[in-house]
Amino acid sequence: MEKIPVTFTGVRVTALLELYLRWLDSRDRHPILGDETAQQAIDRLDFDFGQFRPLSVGRFAVGVRSRTMDDWIRAFLARTPGAVVLDIGSGFDSRVRRVNPADGHHWYDVDFPDIVEIADRLYGPWPGHTYVGASVTEPGWLDAIPRDRPAIVVADGLLNFLPEHDVRQVLSRIVEHFPSGEIAFNITSPVVRKQRERRPVPLFTKFGIVEQWFPGDPRDVERFHPRLRLAEVGSLGDATLLRRSPLYYRLLTVLIGLVPAWRNAGWIPRYRF
């Protein structure tokens, strides 16, 4: 099958990096996420994924946070008939196929037009699924999404690449669009920002990828809109999900947990509204 050329720079490259890390997870003996479609996407894209190899340990964090969000979506849909799923900054993720929602739930994947065009070519149609090509920071893209149903919204690997004022605006628009629902995403703390300043990630420098939002605490987000309430905080070091990961990584998470600053370096928060 003909290869699809990809010449991304900037934040779009993170869609390729996340795909690569999900693919690595799928090849592990005991995958955390087990994304069976990652291989076909890697095979179709004309891109040098080998340059991401120095960041391969990131597959464990990506596996944990994506699995956590998948499980939250399944639980929400099971108790909320007719709910909508909104995956913003969906990149080349095939989450709708992993979750496989029951009839009556519509799923929307939102990302830049060039990304969703390629994603559609990679995966093809899926019942009840729609791609929306738009930047989430631009007004108007929510007009394509029904506003009369409860919704669960996920942003997996997106919001830390936006400035805080854009994060506040995006979350506020979502909360005001739906009658009720949940929002889940991953965030990193100022501890990570300080590390990045001391030791920049070479690949981020190469492609011009800039991380911009580093909140100090998941509860800070409650100030963005009066309807947002923190419901739960998942951990990137979830011992249950990591129980069959390599010993060296499990030992690393234990060591991180012994240092208070690093123990709170990143979270997977879920909010109700």
TrEMBL record:
Q: Which Gene3D superfamilies match?
A: Vaccinia Virus protein VP39
**What are the record keywords, sorted?**
Methyltransferase, Transferase
Q: Which Pfam families match?
A: LCM (PF04072)
Which SUPFAM superfamilies does the record cross-reference, listed alphabetically?
S-adenosyl-L-methionine-dependent methyltransferases
InterPro entries attached here? Ppm1/Ppm2/Tcmp (IPR007213), SAM-dependent_MTases_sf (IPR029063), TcmP-like (IPR016874)
Among PANTHER family, the record links this protein to: S-ADENOSYL-L-METHIONINE-DEPENDENT METHYLTRANSFERASE YKTD-RELATED, S-ADENOSYL-L-METHIONINE-DEPENDENT METHYLTRANSFERASES SUPERFAMILY PROTEIN
Write the protein's name: O-methyltransferase
Question: Lineage, please?
Answer: Bacteria, Bacillati, Actinomycetota, Actinomycetes, Streptosporangiales
